[in-house]
Structures are given as structure tokens and as C-alpha cells.
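seq as requested:
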Amino acid sequence: MPGMHRHASCDGAPVTKTRPGQDAAIHGSHWDSVHGGYFSDLAVAAPLLEKIEAEAARTRAAVVVDLGGGTGFLLSQLATRGNCAGARFINLDSSAEQLAATRERAVQSIRTSVDRFSRAEAVPQDVRVVWIMRSVLHYFGEPGLPPVLAHLRRQAKNGESFVHQTACFEQACAAECLNLLYRWMHTGKWYPTTAQLRRMLGEAGWRVDDLSAAPALPLTAHDLSARYGIAEETVTEICAGLERKLGLMPGVLEVRPNRACAYLHYRIAVCTAV
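C-alpha cells:
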């Protein structure tokens, strides 16, 4: 979990029953099959892993800390690939179930929350860290995003890297579409434009050195129904209403008779604490 206990983290597990609009409790290894296996797909993760490895090598980091790392998938892959020579791997998550599902012995688990942890809980002050994250920031909503980015910056030393895959959109109309979808499903999630994300990171003390595309996540009506406890027909109707309101958006929202799919766009941000 990213630290807000009513939510599940990106590397979670099977969907359980939930109230309409409430994110389902997602815990354990069964997450591998959720969303078509997106978060356990090595080809999907490869661009992010490569950016992390490059930053770890460039900064000679002694530790890689995954913020809201769930079952430890990313860190396990980094350990297996062996390109972060000598680095320790720390998975920071608020869910005991998620941490218990970590299989890689090289990954150390720390149970605490992304928005409240202190550096001293995770690493000594005098070691160099690469902070990483995938698909977590949207859990904090629009008002909560600047404070959490500022909190993360306070835990980092000048010059340390923050490499994260975050959902955001180049076009404001695409961001509006996904934000309306999640609002109409009565969730608290929020997605910025890339320009908004850059601005918020900068205001929090993170210099954005690189912002590159990552594979989009298809969100079918079936998946959203299971995740948020809403009838699949209702999700399809919501998507059809969005299309009527905003017009056709190929690659963002696709609605056909009895079928709907939205696409969550991702960017990989390589940032430096300044």
C-alpha cells in the first residue's frame, strides 16, 4: 500500500468484495493476474528497471528503496538481474500481507507508510539512496499529492535520485477523461497532466531530469467493476457517458456495444533532489 490504509498498493493481489467506489483490498501473490498481469509483466517493467539501474550506477547508490513496493516485484527483479552491484534492496509498504508475499531473500521489508515514514526508519543518514516507486502517487488525490512529494523530498539527501512510474497524461482532455471516470466511480484517485506533474515535482524540490513514456495500462469495464465494487454494466454506462460528454478519444477511452476500456497512461520520471 502506498501508505493510506484504505488503499491497496500497485503490487497487490486478488480483488475482494468492496463497497461501490472503494478500492478493493488487494493483497498477496494472486495480483499477478490482475489487469491482465500488467504489474508482473517483465516486458512492461523493463523500461523502469533500466532507468533505476542507470541511476543506481550513476549515483553509486548503496540502497534502493521501493516506496509502496507491495510484494516486492520490482526489487526482486533488480536483485535477479544483478545490475545494481552491491546495493541493498528495501521494500517499504504499510501492508503486512504485501510484505509477507515478498519471495526474494535479498529484499528487506519495512512496514511503514509512504506519506509518514522517516529516512531513519529505512536507511542510515550517511548512505546514498535511489528512491523508486510505481503507480502510487494517484492514491493521494489532487490535494494530497503536493504534500506527499514534499514529504518524500524531506527524506532524501541532496543529489539523491527518485525514479518513479506515475500515471499522467500529455493532454489535459485525456486527464479530464480519466479523472471524471474515477470521480463518477466515487474514488479519490486523481491523475495530473505531465505539465502538472513536472510543476508539482519542481515545487517540492525535485528536479525532473527525464520524463519518458511507459506502456499504458488497459482498464476494462470488467477490471474496474471487480476493483471498485460497481456493476460492469454501470462502468460501461459511465464510459459511454464520458464519450458523449468529451467525444471520441482513441487510446484513452474506447466504447463499443457492451464493452468499454480506458487506458491509464504512464510516464517514467527520473528526478534529483535539489
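The two ends are 27 Å apart (CA to CA).
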